[in-house]
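Record pair follows.
FIRST:
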Amino acid sequence: MIALIDYNMGNLQSVINAFNKIGKKVEVVSSPDKLREFDKIILPGVGAFRDAMEHLNSSGLQEAINDFSKSGKPLLGICLGMQLLFENSKEFGDTKGLGLIEGRVEAFDKSKFKERLKIPHMGWNTLHIEKKSKLFDGLKEDIYLYFVHSFHAICRDEFVIGKTDYGYSFVSAVEKENIYGFQPHPEKSHKNGLKILENFVNI
């Protein structure tokens, strides 16, 4: 049983559609008390970090997600959902995150760009696999995935399983024990993305 967390910050239907394509069902859950009933949870997200954390805090979902993470059951954060896994974000000030992975979220530093690039980083790009992960089973070392974001995570290499180049190399996939995060959208990334979601189901 897989829970898809609804906290008013994500396009849930695209995730549901992706799981339908691989023959799996997810249940949309907004009640913190229900999370413990599931084997896996997915934290999606599109929008602002601060708004997302306010929704999670006010609904009681923050505490429920933290408790779930301690159970050892798999948890997957997607896009903004991945960023929320970290300790804090510099988007619109300094906002505390879930703190499940040590690190922070910052805006793309355009001063490091060697060419003029648009922000947000939007469209297809390559995720370079940096480390073995069950989520990459059956995939090549470089995989094309779909991105839409203006901020990215900064964390220790021990948690990094994938990186992507846009102006410079940034962290695009992370793993810490039972906690996984992808900056790109697997649910919008056709065959490669569906394989990542299928691998998550099979963990």
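SECOND:
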Amino acid sequence: MKRITTILLLALLMAACSKDNDDIINVELEGKWILTDAACFCGFEPGTDFSVHQITFYGSILTVTNSGQPQFLGGDSGSYMVNGNLITLHNGAQFTYVVKNDVLELTFADNPNIADDELFLVYEKS
């Protein structure tokens, strides 16, 4: 009986242990990112300060901060999902991503039936 109790107690202890990052969807995305460059058919004024746009991946939540113009991702904070290199925002918008060192590149997964909906965003980890 002691042996069974010991085994059950060990199993319970092992099940109770968890990692600190269990809620992190993708470790390489985790953290705060500041926009450094953008390319789209939307046009920008010379000297546009892209750094007023920031995103933060924390656990399963993406927070978007747009404190000026232009605004990207529609200020859409909320949950997100990752499947391979595809990020899906809670509003259904999808972006492919590549992380190189401390640089995140997001490319809007555009609709081929809609002209001029391309969007390419470059962020630097803060």
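COMMENT: Confidence is low (pLDDT under 50) at residues 18-22.
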